[in-house]
Write a structure and sequence with these properties.
The protein is 39% helix and 15% strand. By secondary structure, it is of the alpha/beta class. The chain has one domain (8-176, 214-245): Rossmann fold (3-Layer(aba) Sandwich). The chain has a 7-stranded parallel beta sheet, with helices on both faces. α2 runs parallel beside α3 (95-116) and α5 packs across α6. The N and C termini lie far apart (41 Å). The structure holds beta-D-mannopyranose. Beta-D-mannopyranose binds next to α5. It comes from Acidicapsa dinghuensis. Residues 7-170 form the Ketoreductase domain. GO terms for molecular function: oxidoreductase activity.
């Protein structure tokens, strides 16, 4: 990653999956990294990252995480990678489930950016982790798809509003990635096939023939944060192994 050496980065949902892969990449490059996640207690540091326990549904906890990440040094980079997936149609999704998915995946991003942007005193860059399911979706992901669509619109709105503050905002849209979230879905839907075989089958739906490694998404995030992407804002980048390029009709 270019120039991360002197960058101060905060990653929501950074304890696992795409967020953790991104944190690791930044740490390798010597950046200052704070990880805000509900799954790790304060101070359970791994590598050089500062862990901040944070439930992204709680505005005060999100604001406190930003305060701690931006102590002494302005914030340069923000990644929002917190996310959960619930399954159901609009009819079978309970109101509580819908609210929880929105609060975690989308409202949390609003809270994080709301707190972080004023701390980006030298300008900065934000990447929100959305999904291909913001653009086209499987059956039974109504709440999840809606939350990821919200992130897309929020990305554009913030890019427009904060260009004058020298803050770029972009979204990444991964296809199926080997993360704990997707593994728990594979466990749930895999039945007798088992988890690994289910992941492999899901991978085969992607023209590249496999699911992604979290590092492959982290590389895209790192690029969008870096100076190499200095003229890119308000954009959405798919990293989906060709999934959305392909029509389901087969010859
Ligand atoms: C992701 C998740 C995965 C899914 C993938 C492609 O955002 O929803 O469970 O496999 O999109 O649809």
């Amino acid at each position: 990653m270019q120039n991360s050496l002197n960058k101060n980065a905060l990653i929501f949902g950074g304890a696992s999956g795409i967020g953790w892969a991104t944190a690791r990449l930044m740490m390798e490059q010597g950046g200052r990294v704070s990880i805000a996640d509900v799954r790790r207690p304060n101070g359970s540091d791994e590598g050089s990252a500062q862990y901040i326990h944070c439930d992204v549904r709680e505005a005060e906890q999100v604001a406190e995480a930003v305060r701690r990440a931006a102590t002494d040094v302005p914030l340069d980079w923000l990644v929002y990678s917190a996310g959960i997936q619930h399954y159901g149609s609009v009819v079978s999704t309970s109101i509580e489930e819908y609210d929880m998915v929105q609060a975690t995946n989308a409202r949390g991003a609003f809270l994080a950016c709301r707190a972080a942007i004023p701390e980006m005193r030298n300008g900065g860059a934000i990447v929100l982790v959305s999904s291909v399911q913001a653009l086209a979706c499987q059956e039974g992901v109504a709440a999840y798809a809606a939350s990821k669509g919200t992130l897309e619109a929020l990305t554009r709105a913030m890019a427009v509003d904060h260009a004058k503050d020298n803050i770029r905002v972009n979204a990444v849209l991964p296809g199926t990635v080997d993360t704990p979230m997707v593994r728990s879905s594979a466990e749930r839907f895999g039945g007798t096939n088992g988890l690994e075989q289910t992941l492999q089958q899901w991978g085969e739906n992607h023209p590249l023939g496999r699911v992604a490694h979290a590092d492959e998404i982290a590389n895209l995030i790192a690029f969008l944060l870096s100076e190499k992407a200095s003229f890119i804002t308000g954009a959405s980048y798919r990293a989906d192994g060709g999934l959305l390029a392909q029509l389901a009709v087969r010859l």
